[in-house]
Known about the structure:
Elements: E1 8-13, E2 25-31, H1 37-45, E3 63-69, E4 72-76, H2 87-103, E5 107-115, H3 122-134, E6 138-143, H4 150-166, E7 173-177, H5 186-196
Parallel strand pairs: 2-4, 2-5, 5-6, 6-7
Antiparallel strand pairs: 1-3, 3-4
Amino acid sequence: xxxxxxxxxxxxxxxxxxxxxxxxxxxxxxxxxxxxxxxxxxxxxxxxxxxxxxxxxxxxxxxxxxxxxxxxxxxxxxxxxxxxxxxxxxxxxxxxxxxxxxxxxxxxxxxxxxxxxxxxxxxxxxxxxxxxxxxxxxxxxxxxxxxxxxxxxxxxxxxxxxxxxxxxxxxxxxxxxxxxxxxxxxxxxxxxxxxxxxxxxxxxxxx
Length: 207
């Protein structure tokens, strides 16, 4: 079982070529620039300074790797949406992100963060559809659940998951409520990550 408390910054990579060796298992966090990716990683690892947070959306411009142990990693991917950068830079980010998602063999799953108070945005839905086509599981983390009462928050979760089911995406996506401030849903997130980050030794596989 991975020890999230021992997470340590490994490196930042501008492209797939600069990423760590493609071995073991890793899970990537992705979402709009203001969805709270860094805050979620910091809450998960109980280290408020591990992933860089900023009041300026779009600050994460690299693929940031955090090592749990020699075989397991978390990855903070560039946020999309509000970054105040040129179109050329945005296209470059998109190209690097696409290459990582399509070619990274150790990628076991994606944590997609979205604000529970809002409907899923077109990019969120496109991203989920792409992951579905690629056979990569997605765990939807509906953040800022502390901003709503429990009833409305649960209602929004059910509504979003029902919408994904109507699109035929229910086999690809699971979902939960989350708050990095109140630590809501933290254990549920750890359970999903632990399942994905199980590393199978080829010598132990059945013939």
